[in-house]
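ok, trying the design again with the full structure, not the truncated one.
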């Protein structure tokens, strides 16, 4: 056995006999008795940290979803009110005025302002009205509003 080393020299005689008998036993680092308690505790701590991080995202997502729903309602109410104004036409809005009211959902109210627009260079007798619809609501104890504007021409 000149230049080659034998298995007995590398791992010892007792270990060499078990290696020759079972070629699958070359995996040295695996223990047949499973995980230790310390490994299980570490895995559970890492899992708990991950779950806590994910659970912190739920309130943020719910809040964003609620705001998106509110903005959808505001946009719907504003568009509906503008469509009512367009349907009524110029004759119902020929003089400047302000009116207000609420929708079926009492959390939302509206205000309608009709005014003569400032048209630079146009003659003042031009029959154009600027109609601004403001939708108001309370969000997080603070009044919010959104304006919707259209122009009516005779």
């Amino acid at each position: 056995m000149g230049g080659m080393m034998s298995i007995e020299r590398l791992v010892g005689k007792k270990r060499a006999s078990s290696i020759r008998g079972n070629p699958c036993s070359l995996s040295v680092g695996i223990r047949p008795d499973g995980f230790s308690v310390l490994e299980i505790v570490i895995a559970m701590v890492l899992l708990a940290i991950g779950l806590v991080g994910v659970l912190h995202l739920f309130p943020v997502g719910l809040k964003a979803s609620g705001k998106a729903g509110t903005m959808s309602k505001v946009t719907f109410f504003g568009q509906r009110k503008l469509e009512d104004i367009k349907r009524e036409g110029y004759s119902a809005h020929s003089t400047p005025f302000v009116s207000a009211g609420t929708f079926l959902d009492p959390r939302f109210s509206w205000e309608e302002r009709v005014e003569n627009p400032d048209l630079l260079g146009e003659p003042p007798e031009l029959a154009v009205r600027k109609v601004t619809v403001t939708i108001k609501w309370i969000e997080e104890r603070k009044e919010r509003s959104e304006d919707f504007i259209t122009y009516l021409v005779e």
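Keeping the full-length input from now on. The chain has a mean pLDDT of 82.
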